Amino acid sequence: MSAPERIVVALSGGVDSAVAALRLRDAGHAVEAAYMKNWINEDQIIGDCPWQQDIVDARAVAAHLGIPFQVVNLMDEYRERVVAYLLDGYQRGLTPNPDVMCNRDIKFGVFAQWARDQGFDAVATGHYAQRTTCDDGTFALIEGADANKDQTYFLALLEQAQLACARFPIGDLTKPALRQLAHDAGLPNASKKDSQGICFIGQIKMADFLRQYVPDTPGPIVRATDETVLGEHPGLHYYTLGQRKGIGVPSNTDGEAYVVVGKRAADRALLVAFDGPTAPGLHTTTVKVHGLRWNTPTPPTTAGALEGKVRYRDPRVPLTFTPDPEDPTAATITFRHPQRGLAAGQILALYDGPRLLGGGVYL
């Protein structure tokens, strides 16, 4: 067992972070729990935003485990660093990833700094990821043991200093094994369903959220292959590259469905085409990324073979990484096989086998 530490667990109200706290407590660490209050649905958006129940559940878990519990208010920082990033991205025609930025800037940023200020040695979360110590004393981030639940993709923009204070106590578990531990320990949320929503708006549909904050800017829906106008859309920010459902254009008589293949700012046109390998702009072999961040102390400086996850739950795919000689935070990515629907603003996570090295943002 590692030397006892004073660790604060970010209890979300879900079962994953609850078992993280359970395992750390049982391992002999001085464990406390905190719920990060990041967002309150003060605007009465239609939908289920269950933060109040999450606090109740988190408090119940802490009481059951006999560990101190508090609510940490990070709403201002969250609005400034994550919500503003999200809205700005959509307004600029991008497809942002607030979950990745929440991990980088809030959980292992603002919250981790709060934890250090309170005298904690580390911050633990319920991510399915494994942190290991290398021979040189640095830290590596390895995919979770449960391939279906691995969440290293969402940790792609963490750096080495953030890994130093991060703990992922459930990374070696499968979900069924974790559920069994929760039931065996009598945790009050052992049977609670997993959250499926965006990190801060719960089960609310993204379109409903955007409708409250981003003005509609209607434009034509245009077939990319011949410029035929097929209809009108309420705003480009409601759509992303590769989207099939909810476009508002029916399939043709042969059952071919349309897919979003691009956005044209000049006339606010939403470009669509029939889904398939020949849809213009839908599949790509070469992309550029920027905003690269690495958790390895020796990031690649020359062209070479790596693997990448182009989105969460996708398998790792082979690629060639070519650094930009003039910008160390940018690179050209060449995939061995064409990839579908790589939307600007989304995250590419870079790997060496199961080890996450870092990540960047699609241009």
Task: Give a verbal description of the structure.
The strands form 3 sheets. Strands 12-15-14-13-16-17 form a 6-stranded antiparallel β-barrel. The protein folds into 3 domains: about 5-125 and about 170-205, Rossmann fold, CATH 3.40.50; about 215-275, Adenine nucleotide alpha hydrolases-like domains (SH3 type barrels, Roll), CATH 2.30.30; about 285-360, Elongation Factor Tu (Ef-tu), domain 3 (Beta Barrel). Helices cover about 25% and strands about 30% of the residues. The model is unreliable at about 40-45 (pLDDT under 50). The chain has 7 helices and 17 strands. Strand 1, helix 1 (about 15-25) and strand 2 (about 30-35) form a beta-alpha-beta unit. It has about 375 residues and is an alpha/beta fold. The N and C termini lie far apart (about 45 Å).
Spatial strand arrangement across the major sheet: 12-15-14-13-16-17
**Poorly predicted segments:** 41-46
Query: What's the helical proportion of residues?
Result: 10-25%
Question: What value does the Rg take, in angstroms?
Answer: 22 Å
- What fold name goes in the CATH topology slot of the largest domain? Rossmann fold
Query: What is the number of helices?
Result: 7
Shape: globular
Tell me what portion of residues adopts beta-strand conformation. 25-35%
**CA distance, first residue to last residue:** 44 Å
Structural class by helix and strand composition: alpha/beta
CATH architecture verdict of the largest domain: 3-Layer(aba) Sandwich
In CATH, what is the class of the largest domain?
Alpha Beta
Q: Write down the domain tally.
A: 3
Largest sheet: 6 strands, antiparallel, barrel
Number of strands: 17
- The H/E string reads EHEHEHHEEEHEHHEEEEEEEEEE
